[in-house]
Amino acid sequence: RRILQQELNMSSSSAAYSSELLSAQLIKLINSFLDSNSLTKILEEQKNHRWVNYINVDENEFIIKHGFVNKRKGFFARKRMLLLTSTPRLIYIDAQANLKKGEIPFSLSLKCEAKNFKIFFIHTTHRTYNLEDPDGEALKWCKAIEEIRDKYCQA
Questions:
Q1: SS3 of 90, please?
Q2: Do residues 130 and 119 lie in contact, with contact meaning Cβ atoms separated by under 8 Å?
Q3: 89: Cβ–Cβ under 8 A, 6 or more apart, which residues?
Q4: Which DSSP string do the residues of 101-118 spell out, in sequence order?
Q5: CA–CA gap between residue 79 and residue 133 (Å, rounded)
Q6: 3-class DSSP state for residue 145?
Q7: What confidence tens digit (pLDDT) does each residue in 81-137 have?
Q8: Distance from CA of residue 145 to its chain's centroid?
Q9: Which end of the chain is more exposed for a tag (fewer CB within 10 A), N or C?
Q10: Cα three-residue angle 119-103-72, rounded to 5 degrees
Q11: What is the pLDDT of residue 116?
Q12: C-alpha angle 106/108/110, rounded to 5°?
């Protein structure tokens, strides 16, 4: 406890802090430590990542989530690799041709809606993207997209 108090710059007279405040400060300290270490680890791991050519590694951009999705437009569905990056960007790639096909514009008005475990929609101001995750991770995609949007696209 003494070490913890020193780390949190708490004197013995301030030991009257509630346990909630102590826990909150401890969590903040741990998160700041883990964030800097995990960021370094993620950047190192992604140097050899297959999709690293499509992101700006020089600007410390890293891939938060990636996976194959079926991007539907009209009657046709195309298999694409979808990358959610930290800057934030949503990039879709034709994996067979190894070509970037486009980006979904990120803004505060972007909304993600899961229809079920496989199908989800990304609503932008000008278009709605109809996507299907064959692995059934539509809810995870929506959660990740919404968290990144809330973190980086604040009013």
A1: strand
A2: yes
A3: 55, 61, 83, 103, 106
A4: EEEEPP-TT-EEEESSSS
A5: 10
A6: helix
A7: 999 988 889 999 998 999 999 999 988 899 999 999 999 999 999 999 999 999 999
A8: 6
A9: C
A10: 30
A11: 95
A12: 60
State both tokens at 136: 């059934």
The one-character DSSP state at 155 is -
H-helix or E-strand spanning residue 120: strand 119-123
DSSP 8-state class, residue 126: S
CB atoms within 10 A of CB 49: 16
Token pair 């059934």: residue: 136
- The residue written with tokens 């959660």 in the block is 143
Output the pTM of the full model: 0.69
The owner of tokens 């995750």 is 133
**Amino acid, res. 41:** K
C-alpha–C-alpha distance, residues 116 and 136, integer Å? 8
Structure tokens at 145: 């997209």
